[in-house]
């Protein structure tokens, strides 16, 4: 396994995990339930790990996400408003597009 992505916002990492899974790419979350109890403790990031053999294709997917315009969008399936960083609808997992 190799680290693909990490973020302090768990929802962003979940969204990327869901996107990879929709493309048939298994992944693993780490630090999912870790928390910062102490004020001066370093920030703990949720990490997304993938198989080493799929790391390049996963990086291409991430690059395509980052290069898109990050405007909010309305799901064509359920009508829910989604943030521009989300590739899949948070409500019904329909793909943006």
Layout: helices, strands, pairs:
Blueprint: E1 2-7, H1 10-22, E2 27-30, E3 46-50, H2 55-67, E4 73-74, E5 81-82
Antiparallel strand pairs: 1-3, 2-3, 4-5
List keywords for this structure.
single chain; 97 residues; alpha+beta; Alpha-Beta Plaits; three-stranded antiparallel beta sheet; two-stranded antiparallel ribbon; 5 strands; 27% helix
Descriptive overview:
A hairpin with a 6-residue loop joins strand 4 (73-74) and strand 5. It is built from 2 helices and 5 strands, in the order E-H-E-E-H-E-E. The protein has a domain at 2-68: Alpha-Beta Plaits (2-Layer Sandwich). The protein is of the alpha+beta class and 97 residues long. It has helices at 10-22, 55-67, and strands at 2-7, 27-30, 46-50, 73-74, 81-82. The model has no long low-confidence stretch (mean pLDDT 87).
Strand content: 15-25%
> If you compute it from the alpha carbons, what radius of gyration comes out, rounded to the nearest whole angstrom?
14 Å
What order do the strands of the largest sheet run in, or round the barrel if closed?
1-3-2
Q: Name the CATH architecture of the domain at 2-68.
A: 2-Layer Sandwich
Order of helices and strands: EHEEHEE
CATH top level of the domain at 2-68 is: Alpha Beta
The biggest sheet amounts to: 3 strands, antiparallel
| End-to-end CA span | 31 Å
- Report the count of strand segments: 5
Outline, from the CA principal axes? globular
Class by SSE composition = alpha+beta
Poorly predicted regions are: none
Mean pLDDT: 87
CATH topology-level name of the domain at 2-68: Alpha-Beta Plaits
What percentage of residues falls in helices of 4 or more residues? 25-40%
Please give the count of helices: 2
